[in-house]
Amino acid sequence: MDGIEDRERLRELYGPPNERSVKKEMRRLDKHAKAFIALSPFIVLASTDPSGRCDASPKGDAPGFVRVLDDATLLIPDRLGNNRTDTLGNLLSSPGIGILFLVPGVNESLRVNGRAGVTIDRALLEPSTVNGKAPKAGILVAIEEVYFHCGKAGIRSDLWNPEKHVPRGAFPSMGRILADQIAGLSLEESERLTEESYRTRLY
To answer: What global pTM score does this model have?
Structure first.
């Protein structure tokens, strides 16, 4: 199989980067990036462990749940989940982080890269309280790169077109999937646990 093993060969294949794609990169948030973050209810966090094993984790909440502390700092509240703490654990030893912000109906996305750590500072976390519950921890991001990603992926995928939504019955429920994947877990118990988690463990 013919592969590419160095950047020089890669650049020969693709040619020089588009000039605008290079010039658009910023070191701090501008008014457009801040406005996009305020509208975004869904992000994907990318992190790695010391061995280079990668992880991408979805995070979602009300629009603007990621808080802009200043032009170069973000706070991402860590809501209740499965307690695997994959991202948080990775950041303790490998602080590099990549964040993809999405806004429903907008084909463009926002990419933020930087260094991050885990905070339990009550003063920082209290403003992220929902339903009387503050997050146990948060991800504090020191921004190094910010840029908008063009809308080609959104256009090609037709991501936000409601006519392209997959009917819920066309794919198994999470309860069904886990019952199939975990030995000894019945479908009834799996469905019950999943429904209970969605109902009682959002915050």
So the answer is: 0.95
